[in-house]
Amino acid sequence: MKRGAWILGTVLALGALAVAPATLAARGGGGRHGQARGERLAEELGLSPEQRTQMRSIMDKYRSGAMGDHLRDLRQARADLRTAIHDVKATDAQVQDAARSVASHQAFVAVERHRMAIEMDRILTPEQKAKAAELRQQRRERFQQRGPEDESEE
């Protein structure tokens, strides 16, 4: 059971790390910084040129497909939700509808990220998988020190 949880955790970390540039782009950020982050991760994991090519191919497949569409739609849905929250004329039902739209896009993207992470995990060596788990733990610790951001207050 522990092994299964470790594998799932590693896969999810890879997916999160791998789509960070796509997520940032959907939020209006990323660009060169997202690419630099991906290159830094490739260096830290010690990916071979062939692995880098395979990873890029997997990311491109998902970014150019339905996941990319949903990431763009998610950005708009979040903006719509923020608008509805602060619109004193909006009804509770309108805010709930906007929140459901965000949740729907998030759920779709989460599943696609999971699928992408599974594909990426197949490319890594056992050593690279261990390093990815270490990086995931470091990221988790940094997040806990910062604390979660509450988007509802934007």
Structural features, described:
The protein is an all-alpha fold and 154 residues long. The chain has one domain. 82% of the residues lie in helices and 0% in strands. The protein has 6 helices and no strands. Helix 1 crosses helix 5. The longest helix is centred in the last third of the chain and has 30 residues. About 10% of the residues have low confidence.
Helix tally equals 6
Amount of helix: over 70%
Overall average pLDDT:
82
- Helices and strands, in N-to-C order? HHHHHH
Over the alpha carbons, how many angstroms does the gyration radius reach? 17 Å
Q: Quickly count the domains.
A: 1
Spatial gap, N to C terminus: 40 Å
Helices and strands: which structural class?
A: mainly alpha
Overall 3D geometry?
A: elongated
Number of separate strands: 0
- Strand content is under 5%
How many strands, what sense, and barrel or not for the largest sheet? none
**Poorly predicted parts:** 16-30
